[in-house]
């Protein structure tokens, strides 16, 4: 594909979000929710990287959609964690804001690469 996923701002932001989720969920006692949130968070930059390394735009776009789906999963889990009091709103809010920004960037990247599919 292109110049490599390390050159993609969205990959850097998604990786930073995953690190933030790991740190934010460290004290979470609900281990099932914690691990699910971590898996979803790690899936986002992982699928961006995998998609960028694929040989075709069609494969790349498919992985970007998977990343976007994992991001929606994470957003849902963050909202649930907040609603049940597992994580404070002050912790969840910046993570949600970051996820919204990443989702927009993924949408733009999907749109940019889709015409070539």
Number of strands: 0
Q: What number of structural domains do the residues give? A: 1
Order of helices and strands: HHHH
According to CATH, the homologous superfamily is: 23S rRNA-intervening sequence
Helix segment tally: 4
What is the CATH-assigned architecture? Answer: Up-down Bundle
**Main structural class:** mainly alpha
Mean pLDDT: 94
**Regions with little confidence, pLDDT below 50 for 5+ residues:** none
Strand content: under 5%
Tell me roughly what share of residues is in helical segments.
Answer: over 70%
- The N- and C-terminal alpha carbons lie at a distance of 13 Å
Shape category: elongated
CATH class: Mainly Alpha
Computed CA radius of gyration, to the nearest angstrom: 14 Å
Classify the fold: give the CATH topology.
Answer: de novo design (two linked rop proteins)
Main beta-sheet annotation: none
Nutshell version of this structure?
By secondary structure, the protein is an all-alpha fold.
List keywords for this structure.
single chain, de novo design (two linked rop proteins), 4 helices
Helix-strand blueprint:
Layout lengths: L8 H16 L6 H23 L3 H27 L5 H25 L4
Q: What features would you describe in this structure?
A:
The chain is an all-alpha fold and 117 residues long. It has a single domain (5-116), classed as Up-down Bundle (de novo design (two linked rop proteins)), CATH 1.20.1440. Helices cover 78% and strands 0% of the residues. It has helices at residues 9-24, 31-53, 57-83, 89-113.
